[in-house]
Amino acid sequence: MDERFDIKLGAAPADGADTELYADLDDDLGDELEPSSALYEHRRVVADKGQEPLRVDKFLLDHLRDTSRNRIQRAAEAGCIFVNDRPVKSNYKVKPLDVVTLKLDHPRIEFEVEPEDIPLDVVYEDNDLMVINKPAGLVVHPGCGNYHGTLVNAIAWHLRDMPSYDPNDPSVGLVHRIDKDTSGLLLIAKTPEAKTDLCHQFFVKSTRRRYNALVWGHFEQDEGRIEGNIGRDPRDRQRMAVFPPDSEVGKHAVTHWRVLERFGYVTWVECVLETGRTHQIRAHMKHIGHPLFADERYGGMEILRGQPTGTYRQFIHNCFEICPRQALHARTLGFRHPRTGEEMDFTSELPADLTQLIEKWKNRS
Fold first, then answer.
1. What's 211-330+354-364's CATH class?
2. What is d(CA 361, CA 354) in angstroms, rounded to the nearest whole number?
3. Cα 270 from Cα 339, distance rounded (Å)
4. Which candidate, 312, 287, 290, 286, places its Cα nearest to that of 218?
5. Using an 8 Å Cβ cutoff, are 125 and 187 in contact?
6. Is the Cβ–Cβ distance between 96 and 47 less than 8 Å?
7. Angle at 108 between CA 103 and CA 113, to 5 degrees
């Protein structure tokens, strides 16, 4: 599948989000496609001789399986839909024998998820769903150079004896996702009915999720709210940036935070997401001057607070060695069971690296 624009909508985009809603996949892909002088053909559809005039977005919706009109319209707005090798907008009327193509700035990538014997920490499992505690360092979904050794490959192996579970079927599997270097709880649907119900719960924000994070800096207040649109950073496409809430750039995003413990130069906080945007916690915390500890992409792998003495620099270096990834953990997960209606809540213990990191700061303070 394609990393930035997966026309087969059910498949997951590349890994990298604090909380990702497959019920609202448009938010996970970033806010625009990047046109390039080198374009690669991903899909081609030739209109029949008897084709009646029809908008190109409707035409493609009829011919491309498992996608959405919104996704197609976004591609057209980005200049990625062509008719007879000329870019067109969504309202172009397709005529007989027109050649309609989707072209993107990266080669098409095709792969099938193969079962791989990778250990899983299964917190809960029944016939409808699974709750998994993901370790830091494990990519969630194949893509962007990671086509093996992912959580999805591990799930495929775990459910290899379940005939109805097809790891390549987008109607089952991951309901949401978290970054490669974020640890914590993830929800997996085994059946299409379960996934539809669980995705709806994420969409209407009825699920219960809390994250723990160690961030740089001291908070004067005990709790707060961050509001700011999140979109791709124009200076670094691997990062997200925060834009004014009333701007037309990015997607609306709100994060609630609460101080759990203060350690002087860093603070242990709890974050609750009101929305589910790519890198939301990481981008919002950097935006307010509190990057996540050891988050290299957002500047947290530097000494941002404290006196730069030799002893202190060595202490921070030791901390980075203990936890060489963003100090972020998806701690709790709650939802309504899609079949029984029972309210279910799960809590994941902190992994060893975060536990040692917190203890080290406690001992110092």
1. alpha beta
2. 11
3. 31
4. 290
5. no
6. yes
7. 145
What pLDDT digit, counting tens, does each position of 333-360 carry? 999 999 999 999 999 999 999 999 999 9
179 belongs to the catalytic site: yes
Q: Tell me whether residue 216 is exposed, middle or buried, using C-beta atoms within 10 angstroms of its C-beta: 0 to 12, 13 to 18, 19 or more.
A: buried
Q: Could you tell me the CA-to-CA distances from 188 to 15, 129, 135, 254, 285 in Å, in that order?
A: 16, 5, 16, 25, 28
Residue 343, number of CB atoms within 10 A of its CB:
10
Coil, helix or strand at residue 66: coil
For 287, the enclosing helix (H) or strand (E) is: helix 280-287
Residues facing residue 275 across a β-bridge: none
Q: What are the structural domain ranges in the chain?
A: 35-104, 211-330+354-364
| Tokens of residue 213, six digits | 């994070």
Q: Residue 146 gets which letter from DSSP?
A: B
Residue 68's nearest CA partner among 106, 24, 32, 3 is 24
Containing H/E element for 55? strand 54-55
How confident is the model over 267-297, as pLDDT tens digits? 999 999 988 888 999 999 999 999 999 999 9
**How far is 363 from 173, CA to CA, in rounded Å?**
42
Which residue has tokens 């996934």? 195
Q: How many residues does the chain have?
A: 365
Residue type, 193: E
Residue 33 has pLDDT above 70, yes or no: no
Q: What is the pTM of this model?
A: 0.73
Q: Which tokens go with 27?
A: 């938010």
CA separation (Å) from 89 to 30, 81, 82, 174, 294? 20, 7, 9, 33, 44
The number of beta carbons lying within 10 Å of the beta carbon of residue 99 is: 13
In angstroms, the CA 244 to CA 219 distance is 22
CA–CA separation, 234 vs 240, rounded Å?
9
**Among the options 179, 181, 197, 353, which is catalytic?**
179
Query: Helix, strand or coil for residue 241?
Result: strand
Say how far apart CA 231 and CA 250 lie, in whole Å. Answer: 4
CATH class of the domain at 35-104: alpha beta
